[in-house]
Amino acid sequence: MRVLAPYLALYKRHKWLLSLGIILAIVTLLASIGLITLSGWFLSASAVAGFAGAYSFNYMLPAAGVRGAAITRTAGRYFERLVSHDATFRVLQHLRVFTFSKLLPLSPAGLARFRQGELLNRIVADVDTLDHLYLRVISPLISALVVILVVTFGLSFLDVTLALTLGGIMLLTLVALPPLFYRAGKPTGESLTRLRGEYRQQLTSWLHGQAELTIFGASTRYREQMEQTEMNWHDAQRRQSELTALSQALMLLMGATAVIVMLWMASGGVGSNMQPGPLIALFVFCALAAFEALAPVTAAFQHLGQVIASASRITELTTQQPEVTFPSASAAPPQHVSLILKDIGFSYPQQTQPALDNISLHINAGEHVAILGRTGCGKSTLLQLLTRAWDPQRGEVLLNQQPLSSFDEMTLRRSMSMVPQRVHLFSATLRDNLLLAAPHATDEALSAVLLRTGLDKLLEDGGLNSWLGEGGRQLSGGELRRLAIARALLHNAPLMLLDEPTEGLDATTEAQILDLLADVMRDKTVLMVTHRLRGLARFNQIIVMDNGQIIEQGNHAELLARQGRYYQFRQRL
Asked: Are strands 394-399 and 339-346 parallel, antiparallel or unpaired?
């Protein structure tokens, strides 16, 4: 239960709206009880009065009470649903923002051990599960308790013994059944949460790796594993449904017991009236209606185990400490950037082989550096250290003679533009995908950069309002690469970090992009990771890496004269 405390604190933001929802739920339940109780008494009293009592029996007042209770119940139910769900959705909105804000500083080091499907399941499904906490636990429990007190107090004006008996049976039901079904449903709820996460993770992995699984003949085995997880998930859902049915059956049994007890006790007299007549129906129907307030409570506590399991999974994410922290003080971004790397050493978690080992570099402001090497030699890792996705375990990185760790995150992000290997396309308009890099850019500036990067065809259909991603136009690998370059140009930072910027482009487009980069980055500091050797003569330095170390360094002419690794690369073309 303690794990729910941080999430209960979020309810304080909307305590008045949530409290109003509980009040409306109580009013609705009391109106429903009043309607059935008054109707039962009214019908019985009318039957007893008969035709002879047409002039002496007051039909109008009870009839008005029945109509008033019916209208109140209908209106109360509508506004209770409206207010409660609105408040719950607002709480979930804050919870999603809170969770995502905790995840951002963890990326990528703190999230490396979680798969994408697992993270998605925790952010979406586990957060959604927490809406049960208010709608199915807190509100029904408080409402039931208040209804027991009000019903007991109201009936005590007619007969204290009967009122206390009915109130005692209801209170006993409220105290005994929810903890019982919470303990019975906790293992099932935890299994549901775990299996749901496993299934979605396996499904996401299967969708992403379908081509590879088919090529290597593992698709059938992976499908069987996923189907087995699905069957286990269905079994857990079946067990929970059986518990729900059992809780409803016990609630009906307790309600029927209360009705029989009320009928037996009221038949002997109500208060001082030894011939109660219609008052018997009043107590019987009141017992029937009052147990309506208790019906959701036992089923709600079955979901509490699932809620606690989801809260624990979210807490596991949000309580992690970031591997990389930034100072809070902000400063103006520099106009020019120089870099110094001193004996950098870095290893990924749970990896024995170092990704970088004793890397030392001196890059002057405005200098262009190309980094070559086979896949896995540490080229991309070097760029990630410069963006502080990770911090080196050894050595130091200096930006303009200052430690990289001394820059706040906003200043550091404004100081550099990054073209990553994996470019994310958001399911949004073309304009939104570009404004990520320059939120205040005009439509003219966006159209101009698309034209310069050869993406002007994207403007043909809906212009900047064209929808990209899911439900819209998908981009090829080359188009994605040029979109990332367009974002980098819009960001217009003094340091450009390019990771395979021309990968996936044909020779003509590659030449155009390289000419464009050479033009717009003339006064910028540039580090470009590449496997392609076109245009390297333009760079001031060329670095060749292998096994996390720099094995060659110099300009184009010097490296060709040495006839080393760089020369061998050129000869293979």
From this structure: antiparallel
User: Residue 52's pLDDT is what?
Assistant: 58
As a whole number of angstroms, the distance between CA 366 and CA 61 comes to 91
Whole-model pTM over 0.85: no
Residue in the structure block whose two tokens are 């006839």 = 563
If one counts every other C-beta atom within 10 angstroms of the C-beta of residue 241, the result is 12
Q: For residue 116, name the pLDDT band (cuts at 50, 70, 90).
A: low
The residue type found at 358 is N
* Average pLDDT score over the chain: 84
pLDDT of residue 164: 92
51 vs 25, 48, 56, 59, CA distance in Å? Answer: 39, 9, 10, 12
Rounded CA-CA distance 475/483 in Å is 9
Whole-angstrom CA distances from 334 to 64, 216, 220, 400 are 77, 50, 55, 8
Residue 153 is predicted with a pLDDT of 92
Q: What is the pLDDT of residue 246?
A: 87
Say which amino acid occupies 102. K
Reported as a single tens digit per residue, the pLDDT across 5-40 is: 777 777 778 888 888 988 999 999 999 998 888 888
C-alpha–C-alpha distance, residues 474 and 146, integer Å: 56
Contact between 494 and 412 (Cβ < 8 Å)? no
Contact 162, 266 (CB under 8 A): yes
**Residue from 333, 520, 339, 341 nearest 419 by CA:** 520
Asked if the model's pLDDT at residue 78 lies above 90, the reply is yes
Residue 238: pLDDT above 80?
Answer: yes
Question: With contact defined as beta carbons under 8 Å apart, do 307 and 129 qualify?
Answer: yes
At 240-283, the pLDDT tens digits run 888 888 888 888 888 888 889 888 888 877 877 677 778 888 88
Q: Is 552 helix (H, G, I), strand (E, B) or coil?
A: strand
Smallest CA-to-CA distance from 153 within 143, 163, 142, 145 is with 163
Phi and psi at residue 469, in whole multiples of 5°? Answer: 85, -150
What SS3 string covers 219-260?
Answer: HHHHHHHHHHHHHHHHHHHHHHHHHHHHHHHHHHHHHHHHHH
Would you give the distance in Å from CA 12 to the centre of its chain?
20
Domains and CATH numbers, the chain: 2-318 (1.20.1560.10), 339-425+475-572 (3.40.50.300)
Question: And the tokens for 371?
Answer: 């980094």
What residues have CB less than 8 Å from 470, skipping those under 6 apart? 427
On whether the CB atoms of residues 41 and 279 are closer than 8 A, the answer is yes
DSSP symbol at 359: E
Instruction: Give the separation between CA 450 and CA 483, rounded to whole angstroms.
Output: 8
Cis peptide before 322 (omega within 30 of 0): no
